[in-house]
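Hi there,

I know you've been waiting on this one. I reran it after we fixed the sequence typo, so this is the corrected version. Both the input and the resulting structure follow.
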Amino acid sequence: MDTNLLNNYVLKAIDAYPYDLEETVENLNYALSYESNNAYALYLMGRLQAEQLGDYEKAKQFYAEALASKMEFHKVYEKYILVLIWNDDYEAAQNLIDFALTVKGIDKGVIWQCQGLLFENQQDYKKAIKALKTAKAFGYNNGFISHIDNEISRIKDKIKPKKKKASKKKKSKKDKKKKNKK
């Protein structure tokens, strides 16, 4: 097999995604016909299935095949974890997060961000905030750190409405007492 031709198809698919889906699919099919276990082609096919077609089951299959082909392919982990969370496969997502944190060279900040998202989806907001703070500690650039700060703030806002309701009740009781005294 000519690896240059395979690489050309993969690169054309990367270049076309997500703007020209027809060209993306065509080039991915050619690439996978040359090498059915090409990790990058499988990864991109998984993204296409999840992000464009909403078929999380097929996306999971493609991501699993990509990782089986190349375990150190870092890009797959984040997207695979997100698909598992979107598909409510929380236990599988947690297992993949735990494994991903042991992979050498992986961006631990991104994986901890996924951990925070998993906890948020499970409505464990305190653990989500703690995981996001850990992600922030692993952040290498201001853009990522700013994004994590926004995520923490957003999750804190989910917690606050419960507290605000209680404080409104207290205020209304105090207001009633003041009105009764007058």
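Quick highlight: The CA atoms of residues 22 and 119 lie 36 Å apart.

Best,
R. S.
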